[in-house]
Amino acid sequence: MATRQTQLLARSLLTPAVGLLFIWMIVPLALTLYFSTLHYSLLDPGSESFVGLENFRYFLTDPAFLASLQNTLVLVGSVLALTILLGIPLALLMDQPVIGRNFVRLMVIAPFFVMPTVSALVWKNLLMHPVSGLFAWLAQLVGLTPVDWFNDVPLFAVILIVTWQWLPFATLILLTALQSLDEEQKEAAEMDGASAVSTFIYITLPHLARPITVVILIETIFLLTVFAEIYVTTGGGPGLSTTNIAFLIYSQALIQFDVGSASAGGLVAVVIANIVAFFLVRIVGRNLEA
Amino acid sequence: MARKSTTQQVLVSTIGAWFFGFLIFFPILWMVLASFKTELEAFAIPPSFLFFHWTTENYATVQERSDYFHHALNSVIIAGGSTLIALLIAIPAAWSMAFSPTKRTKDILLWMLSTKMMPPVGVLVPIYLIFKNFGLLDSRIGLVFILCLGNLPIVIWMLFTYFKEIPRDILEAARMDGATIGRELVYVLTPMAIPGLASTMLLNLILAWNEAFWTLNLSTSEAAPLTTFIASYSSPEGLFWAKLSAASTLAIAPILVLGWFSQKQLVRGLTFGAVK
What we know:
The complex is a heterodimer.
Chain A: H1 2-35, E1 38-39, E2 49-50, H2 54-61, H3 63-95, H4 101-109, H5 116-127, H6 134-141, H7 149-152, H8 154-179, H9 183-191, H10 196-223, H11 228-233, H12 245-255, H13 259-289
Antiparallel strand pairs in A: 1-2
Helix pairs in contact in A: 1-13, 2-13, 3-8, 3-10, 5-8, 8-10, 9-10, 10-13, 12-13
Chain B: H1 7-35, H2 39-43, H3 57-66, H4 68-99, H5 105-116, H6 124-133, H7 140-164, H8 168-176, H9 181-210, H10 214-218, H11 226-231, H12 241-261, H13 263-270
């Protein structure tokens, strides 16, 4: 019977992918779980011993954890707010009849394709340098004191860079959604005398609800683990002011070589990401039915 | 289709869109300009926008002093290799789920998606130690492997949504005509799947090229791709802005071109088909 053969074949074609992803997910995670219960420092090899939940107690009560949790939330929240609040008007503008729209779209999407280390260093040096950066020159031009971005407002500086990287993504998705909006519906509303504002509030915005949700969830997943931008600009400093959870775990693992504590932190990060993932998987799953 | 707009409206929205588009693009333009300046001019205040002494000397220096092409080659091998292997694993899997779905297909797909949600930092420690023990630190093969696994869920998802769109009637017709699965795959499915395959490959190349967590943590010099190489310019000894700009311009140019071609697929791939 052909169908039975097909099923068998289908299963054998699926197995390598499932198997690999299963190993990729389970083995490191199991090791992280195991390490998190050990006193394990790479600086002090051979001293590994079981300590139960001690690493979690240490990691969660470490003042650095609270600071980095706060920084993570501020970073994720601000970038989300900025990309959505700037992305909506930008997408609306680009949805208007614009001469040379394709070219404008190319310019808007470009930052998304720039590797994180490049965008961070270009912003840090060429734009945000307190003496020779372009922003400093612009500030002087209008008679302001140049801002020393990475000393005075380091977290905000990182937020600006990350926003620049993700604004294209939000705009592009919202624009794609806008372009699928039924023109006739808007036309009908206009004929009924609806103002541009109420057309936006009652027709456009509800239509954007789903893409906005998707943008928020996907950006959150990536923003929770922002790393390179911090690594090349501030190294988490000054002090802990730009250390997020990802960077804190990195520094405990590969700078302080405290494997146990970093593993506990890693699991905390996994739990936080899973809470977000839960919602995303549900939304995408619902879409799969359609 | 479109409502009639007055010339004035078109003018206003055009000027507005171009202004903001230019503003967003400006940092990239500024970097490209700086790459053609001398170090002194790149640093100068007030800055010169176009009327400076144009030079390509930075590009030559970047290659001479730091062997740029070595790192570019690493990027090509790591991004290309991981993409190819991911495709080889993903094509059969996506094909099987799209054309012979079972009750569990949806669960498997969502489970695959959930592996992508795992923050890399959550498994940094074990991966780093495994790499250390097997001598894979700063090796291209190790990075190929990690990036391949990291992007595999996206590749499978994208291919799945593309394969899903291939009309099943055609397959049935081929089957009725007595085509074997092998022939069906080669003569019917492949030609129809090529656009989807191409855009999946493109998006995955971009993601792998720009990946900057594993590459920064697992490579230092020998296997360092461009992400790691550029990061080495962050060291405070010496501000080589023009050279940083030249190296950066070279690093992003190929991917910017690829990226511009794949904008549409980007939306689809990165939203796992939730927005098309």
